[in-house]
Specification:
29% strand, 3 strands, 3-stranded antiparallel β-sheet, globular, alpha+beta, single chain
Length: 76
């Protein structure tokens, strides 16, 4: 039996000063998603962070981002 994995993918932009907090939140929610900083944003005043997760955790990831966006500027 072959199962096709479906992945949710998005990129967020956060101020550089808040990026460590975002990384901490992703680490604290271990296993929720994978993330990486896009190299193009290094040296800028922001960080572009690529987020990927299984579709089964998409809603949870979006809830976390919505909660974080109440105190941090997050652009999609």
């Amino acid at each position: 039996m072959t199962e096709i994995n479906r992945v949710f993918h998005t990129v967020i932009r956060v101020p550089k000063k808040d990026s460590a907090f975002i990384y901490f939140q992703f680490e604290a929610n271990e296993g929720l998603c994978f993330y990486s900083t896009l190299e193009e944003s290094l040296g800028q005043g922001h960080r572009d962070i690529e987020i990927q997760c299984d579709l089964s955790t998409k809603d949870e990831v979006l809830r976390l981002l919505e909660h974080l966006s109440r105190s941090i500027s997050i652009e999609y």
